[in-house]
Fold Cytosol non-specific dipeptidase.
Amino acid sequence: MNQEIRNLEPKALWNKFADLNAVPRPSKKEEKVIAFMKDFGKQLGLETIVDSVGNVIIKKPATPGMENRKTVVMQSHLDMVHQKNAGTQFDFDTQGIEMYVDGDWVRAKGTTLGADNGLGVATIMAILESKDIPHPAIEALFTIDEETGMTGAMGLEGGLLQGEILLNLDTEEDDEIDIGCAGGLDVTAVREYNEEEVPENAVGYVLKVSGLNGGHSGMDIHKGLGNANKIMNRLLFDSFENFGLQVAEIDGGSLRNAIPRESVAKVVISEIFDEAFVFDMQEVINDITAEYKTTEPNLKITIEKGELPTKVMDLGVQEGLIRALYTAHNGVYRMSADMEDLVETSNNIARVIVKDGTLQVGCLTRSSVESSKFDLANALRSAFELIGCEVTFSGSYPGWAPNVNSPILEVLKNIYQKQNGAEPKVVACHAGLECGILGTNYPNIDMISFGPTIKGAHSPDERASITSAQKYWKFVLEILQNIPVKA
């Protein structure tokens, strides 16, 4: 199945990607891939270090004639986002990713592909293994847990690296060179509630939102995509207001850095409103699907009779939750005043769970401006504290301030122009790259980020362009040949 991937050009890159994708590598469960990378380095006879948090560092000397060039840190993260379609049977903890070629794209069968950031990892592996690619001294840095907290980058100690230039291979448009990124903060609201007996003469229903595109909660947040948690809340709000709907359970979204694709709610309604409820719900569903017909053509909202639950939420807490979710900001909060078309601050209402007397709402707030990040986080905190939730901030990480005078930026711009006959786009992104964190312990390192074209990251629609990977590979090889000499 993956043999067709191995036959793609450049084979050095795609073979390493196939090797990597055979290894399960969930965030926070990277033991297998850490061992895989450690063995890889040692088999090559290269100095290999696993630090105290699990980051892997492999050092390779310069090729002959390149010893006087600056040492380069090539960096990518080992973990990948695990998302699968509802009907896909797949165990990310034990199975390797099943890939196939679809025209110019490499895809996975019903799951995320892991090109984010597996193609970056594979690139570095191919350079480390090569015997004929000229390069300066390389320090390959493979970080862990980028997708769910960046704890690998946060735990990297100062002094382990001596490189003067860092090439981060974790962006997703091959005509862009990234010089800045957003920081992030997890906002979590939790409270307990009393469960009540289901009223007499009630009927049970299951509401389901599915078929949304999902995607990266940073890179895709400005695209007007549907958020399953917000859409579900509209349904609950309308039915509570008009028919006294009561909630038994809600299970919406999954990972904080993925725009929610699905939400399911188990609810009850008095049988005297049964017919009117279904009729009204269908009108609301029609309105919502019409709103999203362009950005979410596959959106599906269903309402079906279900087993009658035994317990429902306390009505006062339920009303507070529905109103708090309605008012809580989701999407773009502020655009940058300094860089055109750059999202400065945003929020993703990523996870909503109501079950067994506890409710929990998880958000990921992003911003390239620290004060704006906490401004939005405090707005969310206020909304949920008003309904009695305990709200915590965690996992805060800094953004990466753009340096338009970066020396390595000039090198990359000149190479891109020579190879492609056009100027690259020099941008900052709204994703959470590790550069800002790495820069705290290595403040003098000159950092840049780039990568091949990847679409639909953090969703089962993730796909990597084959022709773009070829373009990117040539770019990488030329960059390594043109690293400046040491001062």
Observations:
- The chain has a mean pLDDT of 95.
- Residues 203 and 274 are 8 Å apart (CA to CA).
- Residues 274-291 form the longest helix (18 residues).
- DSSP finds twelve helices and 23 strands in the chain.
